[in-house]
Specification:
heterodimer, A: 368 residues, mainly alpha, ABC transporter involved in vitamin B12 uptake, BtuC, 2 domains, 13 helices, 71% helix, B: 508 residues, alpha/beta, Rossmann fold, six-stranded mixed beta sheet, 17 helices, globular
Chain lengths: 368, 508
Amino acid sequence: MPPKIETRFGRIRVERRVGYGRLYSISMTLLSLALAFLVVALILTSLGLDPIKAFQVIFGVFTKPSLLLESIKQSIPICLAALGLSIAFKMNFWNIGAEGQIYMGMIASTGIVLLHEYYGFFYEWMIMPLMFLTSFLLGGAWCLIPGALKARLGVNEILPTLMLNYVAILIVDFLVHGPWRDPKGYGFPLSIPFPEYAKLNIVLGDPAYTGLLLSILGAAAAFFLLEYTRPGFEIKVVGQSPAVARYAGIHVRSTILLGSFLAGGLAGIGGLSIVSGIIGRLRPGASPGYGYTAIIVAALAGLNPWVIVAVSIFFGGLITAGGALQMSMGIPKAAAQMIQAVIFLMILVGEFIKRYKVTIERPRVGEE
Amino acid sequence: MEKLVELRGIVKRFPGVVANDRVDFELRRGEVHALLGENGAGKTTLMNILYGLYKPDEGEIYVRGRRVELKSPKDAISLGIGMVHQNFRLVESHTVLENIILGLGEDKLRIDFEKHRRRIMELAERYGWRIDPMARIWQLSAGEKQQVELLKILYRGAEILILDEPTSVLTVQETRRLFEALRRMAREGKGIIFITHKLNEVMEVSDRVTVMRKGRVVITKETRETTKAELANYMIGRPIVFGQKKVSAKLGSIVLKVIDLKVLGDRGYPAINGVSLEVRRGEILGIAGVSGNGQVELAEAIAGLRRPLAGRILLNGVDVTGMDAGKMIELGVAYIPPEGNKLGIVPGFRVVDNLFLKAYRYPPYSNNLLLNWGKMLEKAQELIEEFGIVTPSALSRTSSLSGGNIQRLILARELSGIVGGIPRLIVAAYPTKGLDIGATEFVHDLLLRYKEMGSGIIFISEDLEELLLLSDRIAVISGGRIRGVLAREEADAEKIGLLMSEAVIQAG
């Protein structure tokens, strides 16, 4: 039975669409984007700003090479976290904690750099590989906590993953205010800037290119895992039905542990890409919610790893556009975020309407 | 005689199928009218239209001679139409009384529970039901729950009653009691539509019968002017043979030995309470009983899905007690779960995924890390042909398959030996439940074929007819204990029913 809502205007029915064509899908997306821009135009006009000019700035993000590179750079942590989420969500593991796992990845990366800089541990060439390894491990471990709680005690993962975000954010705060503060940083809560060997610019000397390669490799890995490996198959079965998984002889608990670890690990690498690629040091609030944006991205991309790469770049573009609007038109930060939010929202509504049919049956006069 | 309901030229289309194709149907006052047909014949669709759940694309509905348009069950209820669905729609943690008056809308602010309780008691007594209005639903047996459902609609003054496969959850005795109540309701001038695919029940309880096939009405007849064979012919479009299917396989060594097994159920109480049994190669051991008496827990314990509390399970003489499901699969135990479309497959997966739901991790389909889809697809193609699974391709979504085809898929996976050769032991829990005659025959033949090949088979069913048809021995289970084991020669419906009910008396 489709859900029905009775209102004084009639009965609202929401039904799942059985299937829809590609043309329909694309035109709905375009329509919702058009609607989004219409609403944005209204907001801008009410602020006394020229919407046309603002749109030029927004579209400029995807046409000007420098801004496009910036968008790609912004998309890397979102993309890696979303790839992790695609694994978690396939497993029906509602990880809201990519943000915290990103922070743990940043801690691990920064920790390796500091160990080398302060204490002379490791050779320089080992730093990058170690950063990758430890940020994956620490991000994974962070997600393994709620994973283990679920696997062992049946604790629902949503609250633990969410709350661990704040713990991770506060650990970073503690570190940069305390032991990891840059001694030459005039007391600002910042780590020392990363030296060149710890920066993510292996490809063409630019973090955007390196990150794009990383995103694509990550997508390939996630895709391969889910489609062509035994653990990937088991993750999907557990996600569809733990009862059926047990029946099939799958070890549900160890699958949950593995899946949550991999999901957190990818987000951890996302954290690495922030400190090593975008900012170049650790500071409080280093991730302005990439881990939350990743949830939207994963959902919009239908958990398809390849689509996640593209959608991430689009969302990276929106973030960049927000910054560009502030700079070139003097739009307040809040208004820029509002514009981003309106576009998010319209796309989400568009997706909903794509997948569900909403009809309103009006009671005719004289009946009932 | 007055026509309570008349449906004329009803057409209902769903994407890709015509569920009802110009269907005419009438229900007279004072009759029990059986609506007979295989699964997918369109019976339930037709009744959902009469109950206001679906809107017909074409056609007219008359209730007591007046043309009506039914927009929702609310409209149907106000016209005195009531429906008992196949799966009960009761609030488990509420009392009988609360369930019956739920949504009644008669009382405004204060509910006069005492008044309702009295009236409900009177109503129940009229049909010879002893039911405590203050009991909670989860405490009731399936038969009692059904009585609550009936009380619910009778209490609303319904005189057009639709029952969708009402006997599928009942014991022989409960069924008999239900039929008595239905006859009494008919005598009072109500009209009863009885949806079923069981021929015996049509002959036993109905005054008239309408047979549907592939969305159309084949015929409507007085029940006493027809025979089971004739109805079967109308229903499936070809004659079928009733009677025993003899396959004489030599009984071999003992495959499975269960000794004094105790197993906990989901509620934390022992669901299996000291069961001992054995199955030999080439033997079908039937397990008869009303569902919910420990059958599923027994099957799950044997399949490694439920850890026994006490007792031992020996497979070919080797102690396998407490081994997990993966291990049991490797040891050649095939398990056909109850409600296969829920527990036996992942509906959103492709056909090939579900065919290899167990074998995917074993060579040659996997080297323990990577999957070899090429090999799997190749084998899937073979299985689809061998087991006659009707699907557009091995890559189609399983949820688009019919129930019978899903069961074929499960059988193909469990029996074809893609994991460890021909299964040594097959545990089949209600493998034909909900299937139509054609698909049921297929399942029966398959089980007999594996019996011939030397598998030991535990065959759990509620349907005495098929138990008597296939089993070499029949164990009667009730309250988590085996109440008796009958050889096929000495078993009959009466004896089995007696064993079931004796135990109930003992337990109660």
